[in-house]
Design brief:
The structure holds two protein chains of two kinds. Helices cover about 65% and strands about 0% of the residues of chain A. Chain A is mostly helical. Chain B has helices at about 1-25, 25-30, 30-35, 40-45, 115-125, 155-170, 215-220; strands at about 50-55, 60-65, 70-75, 80-85, 90-95, 135-140, 175-180, 185-190, 195-200, 205-210. Classes of the chains: A mainly alpha, B alpha+beta. Bound molecules: fe (ii) ion (2 copies). The site of one fe (ii) ion has 5 residues of chain A, from α7.
Chain lengths: ~290, ~220
């Protein structure tokens, strides 16, 4: 059975495991450093032609409504802002594998993508509303929060039904069922993957704690933003897999973020509007 | 020790699952779908088939032809279908939230229960339907896993959506035939306008007939 496969094996032996383009990771690191400037970010972008082209296309898209054409990468970074460029780089770098179906989680084509992107948009919104985390970091953390699903899906093929039955019978959440049946859950696998890829620590933490925010020892408010963002996105049905809404919502996150339960509805409403606006833009560029 | 138990248990579940799905071909329409466990709501869609209509998030679709309406991605939201058998008009709406909170969203009636059902009825009336003849079925209102006493109804969008729908149906005096609500699963609503059959598919791969909205079909069956 699959639990004899260790997390290390999953991360090391899955040959078609996705990767994030090196330039995208470098841009992410650079934007987080205090010495970052449009010029330093542009210098990294130049090393990746496909990425550079997308950044220029975004800067020139109707979304930003500029009257003149931008051809210089440095200028594009100034226009878009370093943080948008970083988010674009990550969206562009993850879309090719996130849009693939994940049969191990009953996710059809595009469904994982919708869930990741939706959670990114929702987490960013929560961060903006509460000012408890940096908006762009919340976007990134939301986008990458379920990395473990991508890696686990390959090994889970055909086993989800059994895990679901077990969860239903025991009355436990899906991640708990994963832990009991496999020995680990998609959060732990995602954490492993993220550390293996040398992603920033806060991204690793969000992978590990997004279903148990109260256990987070570091970056807790960011984890809370992703936890609430994940809830908002999932409840709106964007990219629901077989695990559906079979997760525990931790109300402590709302307390820590100072969100009143009745505010969730307004946040969700805003999320639906934003998602519609962003999705077509990013998809067009990332494709 | 516990590991061994779990291995056996998992194996046992798997067996039961296999047998169960095999013995119920009508519910799962063949083992191919279930073995690969594709929820794949979008996979249901065949864009080259003009008789299929996708009812996306927050939208209203009405038709007087023979169509299959497919409304995927229903989580805490609500997929609702109405049919006037005599006029031959079918309409589906996918509503996300209980009520309009922001004036700027007034141009999106399909997004809210408070405006979506009335707008659906209005659009159906334009095609000759009568409100008094409409028969309704709706699904959705799923929620995250909560533990007994912790339940806080205020943030529970699924529960609030369901309550809003029954209020609306009551005040508009519409007749409901069937509903499939709550739980933790995502759903897809599938409506065959020709037969009046309403099916609900859950994201873990199961599919069942919820009801038949056409009386003549019911009597024939
Ligand atoms: Fe997750
Ligand atoms: Fe998630």
């Amino acid at each position: 059975m699959s639990h004899t496969v260790s997390i290390e094996q999953i991360v090391q032996k899955t040959s078609d495991l996705p990767t994030i383009p090196a330039a995208a990771i470098k841009v992410m690191r650079e934007t987080q450093s205090s010495k970052a400037s449009a010029a330093t970010v542009a210098r990294i972008l130049v090393t990746d032609q496909a990425l550079s082209a997308k950044v220029l296309r975004l800067a020139n898209s109707a979304f930003y409504g500029l009257s003149r054409k931008i051809t210089d990468l440095g200028e594009a970074v100034v226009v878009l802002g370093m943080k948008s460029v970083k988010n674009l780089a990550l969206v562009a770098g993850t879309y090719p594998w996130m849009q693939r179906p994940l049969t191990g989680y009953c996710l059809g084509p595009e469904e994982m993508w919708r869930h990741a992107f939706g959670t990114a948009v929702a987490s960013q919104l929560v961060a903006r509303a509460t000012r408890k985390a940096l908006e762009d970091v919340a976007f990134t953390a939301g986008l990458l929060h379920d990395l473990g699903k991508v890696a686990l899906s390959v090994w889970l093929e055909n086993k989800m039904g059994a895990i679901l039955l077990y969860a239903g019978r025991e009355g436990i959440s899906y991640d708990e069922a994963e832990r009991r049946v496999l020995g680990y859950d998609h959060c732990q696998v995602g954490y492993h993957l993220a550390t293996n890829w040398n992603l920033p620590e806060e991204i690793c933490a969000c992978n590990l704690f997004h279903h148990k925010p109260s256990n987070a020892t570091e970056f807790q408010e960011l984890v809370d933003c992703v936890h609430v963002g994940d809830y908002i996105c999932s409840s709106m049905g964007y990219g629901l897999g077989g695990d559906g809404l079979l997760y525990r919502f931790d109300e402590e996150s709302l307390v820590r973020l100072n969100i009143k339960p009745e505010d969730i509805e307004a946040l969700t409403d805003e999320f639906v509007s934003q998602y519609e606006e962003y999705e077509s833009l990013f998809k067009e560029l990332a494709a | 020790m516990e590991r061994q138990f779990l291995t056996d248990y998992l194996h046992w579940c798997h067996e039961i699952f296999r047998v169960w799905t095999k013995s119920r071909p009508s519910e799962f329409s063949g083992e191919k779908r279930f073995n690969t466990l594709e929820s794949n709501e979008r996979g249901l869609l065949d864009m080259s088939n003009p008789s299929q209509i996708l009812v996306g998030a927050a939208t209203i679709r009405v038709s007087n032809g023979q169509t299959t309406m497919i409304c995927p991605g229903i989580g805490s939201s609500i997929g609702l279908v109405a049919m006037d058998e005599v006029a031959g008009v079918t309409g589906t709406v996918h509503m996300m939230l209980p009520k309009v909170l922001n004036k700027s969203s007034l141009d999106k009636p399909g997004r809210y229960v408070s405006t979506g059902i009335a707008e659906l009825v209005r659009q159906m009336q334009e095609q000759g339907a009568l409100a008094s003849r409409l028969v309704i079925a709706y699904v959705g209102g799923a929620e995250v896993f909560t533990f007994g006493a912790e339940r806080n109804q205020q943030f529970n969008i699924g529960t609030r959506n369901v309550a809003a729908v029954s209020d609306q149906l009551h005040s508009l005096e519409l007749r409901t035939l069937a509903a499939d609500l709550g739980g933790n699963n995502g759903r897809t609503l599938i409506v065959e306008s020709a037969s009046g059959e309403v099916r609900v598919r859950t994201t873990n791969g199961g599919e069942r007939t919820l009801c038949i909205l056409k009386r003549t079909q019911l009597e024939a069956a």
